[in-house]
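Audit log entry. Action: structure prediction of a protein-small molecule complex. Ligand: flavin-adenine dinucleotide. The ligand was supplied as SMILES and no pocket hint was given, so placement is left entirely to the predictor. Protonation state taken as written. Sequence taken verbatim from the request; no trimming, no tag removal. Recorded inputs:
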Amino acid sequence: GFRFIARLLQQDSLSSVALDPFPSALNARAKRVSKVTSTNYALTSVLALLMDASPRLRRGLIRRVITDGDSISDLINDEEHLDRYIRQNVIPSWHPTSTCRMGAAADPGAVTDPSGRVLGVSGLRIADASVMPFCPRANTNIPTIMVAEKLADTVLREDRRS
Ligand SMILES: Cc1cc2nc3c(=O)[nH]c(=O)nc-3n(C[C@H](O)[C@H](O)[C@H](O)COP(=O)(O)OP(=O)(O)OC[C@H]3O[C@@H](n4cnc5c(N)ncnc54)[C@H](O)[C@@H]3O)c2cc1C
């Protein structure tokens, strides 16, 4: 699975938009900064700004602060290293959302409009957990059903109007 994703990330269509991918793990440091505190809020806000400031700075932060030096290419080129990394870091899944987030047309991070239509692609809507504008701090099953019900209702209403 790791190698498959690494190969996908090398495709031109993905490497042009998925900048500087890196292996991430729920290590002790990640657990510490995941706690909701004002210090962590300030720390992660500053880090997020720095990550977006320049590619050079981002790569340095990834290597020195986030991954402790492990890179995807190091791992896929060393069978034992990859094996060890996965055994040490594999965890059950969290509740990932917001990979195609909904937003205003002027929002550069938005993938869909508020009706779930994919911006710039006709005839395609998204109605699942991926459109949530940000990752909620709660379980996602019922909110996903709510998103689906709401967007289904929107489609029906638009159909009735046309
Ligand atoms: C182990 C686990 C436990 C969880 N426990 C809880 C919980 O206790 N409470 C809670 O609120 N949430 C829980 N969640 C989260 C919740 O299940 C998800 O947030 C929710 O299901 C997301 O819904 P979705 O429709 O976005 O995606 P999914 O439910 O993942 O639906 C995607 C669907 O698309 C299908 N699919 C994928 N690729 C294709 C393709 N190429 N062609 C056709 N179909 C495809 C898949 O088979 C799947 O049916 C849990 C998640 C996991 C993984």
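Audit: result stored. Residues 40 and 46 are 10 Å apart (CA to CA). The radius of gyration is 19 Å.
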